[in-house]
Amino acid sequence: MMATAPINKIIEFSNVDGPGNRTSIFVQKCPFKCLYCHNPETIHMCVHCGICVETCPKKGEALEIVNGKVVWHKEKCIDCDTCIHVCPHLSSPKITEMTADDVIEQIKPLFPYIQGITVSGGECTNYPEFLTELFTKIHTYNKTCFLDSNGAYLYEQMPALMAVTDAVMLDVKAWNKSWHEKLTGISNENVLRNLKWLQEHDKLYEVRTVCMPNMHEDNLSTALGVVANLDPNIRYKLIKYRPFGVREEGLQKLGNTITTDEEIHLLKVACEEHGAKNVIIV
């Protein structure tokens, strides 16, 4: 049997998920629970509580409970996202279990217009067997295959997947272990180990860090920690914290102030002064 993965959504065209025009595929489930996550509905799998069914404007059509499980009928969904907004479990009922062939069948008409695919999430490396099959087949169409990953799992333990992965876009959310745990609920030990491994195997496309407002020490320690352990030519993307779309728990702990242009510019300058040659602000 072919491996499958729960697919949350597929964005046909993206120019921010790797080189060139790409198709971005989002899987469901993530071991991190980032306070500032902008896709919190991808964190957990559906527990079939039925709350979304009761609040759906197309109740009984787009969503229904069958044998104790929530079933989504895509063809009847109006994409209002009410189900996502009311879910108390950081999940979504709008998931499709797909094989590599299913994904390719859906995106194949896009191949003349894209350079490759990027699989994101959630956390894509929850499904290494699925990704290995998908990337192996995508390469036969002369397309590149990227991972957009938080580095929660060790890539060195996924040799088959990494052999068919062209590059990884890695999130380093914090250099300080305790701050990383506060942000995500998980240690950054694997993340930092992966940062080193990816460079040693020429698999690192870029590193990204969300920079919080009014937390100069945490921002600076993370940025300089990354730069000190990063090839100067690899792109380092500094991302402003933006509270829009952040869930209530995150807003309570992180606030609703946007990181200012001045704050993030100072971080960029600090990175460049410490040797980074390719720093981008987003």
Protein architecture, described:
The protein has helices at residues 51-55, 82-86, 100-107, 128-139, 159-163, 177-184, 189-200, 216-228, 248-254, 261-273; strands spanning 4-14, 22-27, 63-66, 69-72, 96-99, 116-120, 144-149, 167-171, 204-211, 235-240, 279-281. Helix 3 (100-107) crosses helix 4 and helix 8 packs parallel to helix 10. It is built from ten helices and eleven strands. Strand 1 and strand 2 form a beta hairpin. The protein is α/β, with parallel strands linked by helices. The strands form two sheets. It has a nine-stranded mixed beta sheet with strand order 5-1-2-6-7-8-9-10-11. Strands 3-4 form a two-stranded antiparallel sheet. It is 31% helix and 22% strand.
TL;DR of this structure?
It contains ten helices and eleven strands. It has 282 residues and is of the alpha/beta class.
SSE layout:
Blueprint: E1 4-14, E2 22-27, H1 51-55, E3 63-66, E4 69-72, H2 82-86, E5 96-99, H3 100-107, E6 116-120, H4 128-139, E7 144-149, H5 159-163, E8 167-171, H6 177-184, H7 189-200, E9 204-211, H8 216-228, E10 235-240, H9 248-254, H10 261-273, E11 279-281
Parallel strand pairs: 2-6, 6-7, 7-8, 8-9, 9-10, 10-11
Antiparallel strand pairs: 1-2, 1-5, 3-4
Helix pairs in contact: 3-4, 8-10
